[in-house]
Amino acid sequence: MTNILITAAGSYGDIAPYTGVGARLRAAGHEVALATHDSYAPLVRAAGLEFRRLPADPRTRRTDTADAAEQARPTGPGKSDLMRQATAFIKELGGGIADAAREDTGLLLLSATTAPLGHHLAEARGIPSLDLPLVPGAPTGDFAPVVSGGRSLGRWGNRAAGRLSLRIIDRLYADASREMRARLGLPPATPRTVRRRAEAAGRPVLYGFSEVLVPRPTDWRTGLDVVGNWWPWYAPDDRLPPVVEDFLAAGPPPVYIGFGSMAGGEGERLSTLAAAALRRAKVRGILQSGWAGLPTRHTSADADLLTIGEVPHALLFPRMSAVVHHCGAGTAAAGVRAGVPTIPVPVTADQPFWAARLACLGVATAPIPFKDLSTDHAVARLAHALTQATAAPARRDHATAAAHRLAAEDGAGEVLKAVERLVA
């Protein structure tokens, strides 16, 4: 039995997969704590894990600094502002990660956002660590960095852009790393130096996505392994709320529409747009409120529309005819797992990358960039995509086939095997 500390920071999609990993490790006899933000304490404790607090909760901040920290773009408008916000977020996070470890911690499992800080802690305490990112981060010629919009730059260009992305991340963590190393009594070392030491030593990294969507790059070094998705924990006896079951029973399978932690404050506009598109496409819909705050009250003309709060995608998505979402890594995988077609509406960061992957797999319509939902033709475009997704048998057949492949994977089980090798 080992005392394991998992650290994860950001939005729901950055945290929830680690509850599934933690529950699997706990079932194998390990003591597991998950350090994250206060907003996710109930989620962590429900999975049977010890909650430890990390500061800089994005639910209480005005900006998406957590996403900026993990997925900083090398180009694009607002880069300076994002860099400043991300640096401030990371500095606040560093002290919390140091405080989260206990004397009896025997292993650190680190998300992509927390890994550059967690490595200092592992060095100071002399304990092993394992990186568990949710998206491909190591440079490769197979594709451009996931935050570059999905367009290939050629093999040389892709690798060069990947190296540039790592240097930008090093800059983001420079101040926090300097403060953290001083606090832990470590000699000075830049994030780039620490990263290169880890690469030279062949530090293992397990990536929590599926090769169904992203085959392991052909030029990655040994030790960078794609193991399959880690699914958020939910109780075996969980059921959909009665109001959802009643709605599902009242007609044909509806379409899910949700934007997760994206589009904060745009709920009224998005709800109106979604309702109009659903009416035009003549399909029923379930809207998930999310951070956008989609309102729960609708007019009598929207009898075929229901707005809900948080429910497990694993329970809801298989009951849908299609899913419309922002294409965060976890939500994109959940749609594939459910075997239903997707209408991707990517907003930022890695979302265009996953949207393009879904389209290439044949399980999704052509992506609709979120900014296009503000145009005069937004209702017509979304309605057309809804019709394409729900009326084309071939797309559902592709989704069913992909779901069967995904079901054969056991990402959390691969983490358990790696942990037991590390602590043996």
How would you characterize this protein structure?
The chain is globular and about 65 Å long. The chain is built from 15 helices and twelve strands. Strand 11, helix 11 and strand 12 form a beta-alpha-beta unit. Helix 1 packs across helix 15 (411-423) and helix 5 crosses helix 6 (154-183). The chain has a five-stranded parallel β-sheet with strand order 3-2-1-4-5, with helices on both faces. A five-stranded parallel β-sheet has the order 10-9-8-11-12, with helices on both faces. The chain has two domains: 3-229 and 409-423, 3-Layer(aba) Sandwich (Rossmann fold); 242-407, Rossmann fold (3-Layer(aba) Sandwich). Residues 62-77 have low confidence and may be disordered. It is of the alpha/beta class and 424 residues long.
Structural features:
about 425 residues; Rossmann fold; alpha/beta; about 10% strand; five-stranded parallel beta sheet; globular; single chain
Structure described in brief:
It contains 15 helices and twelve strands.
Biggest sheet: strand arrangement: 3-2-1-4-5
State the end-to-end CA separation: 10 Å
CATH architecture of the largest domain: 3-Layer(aba) Sandwich
Q: How helical, in percent, are the residues?
A: 40-55%
Total number of helices: 15
**Structural class of the helices, strands and pairings?**
alpha/beta
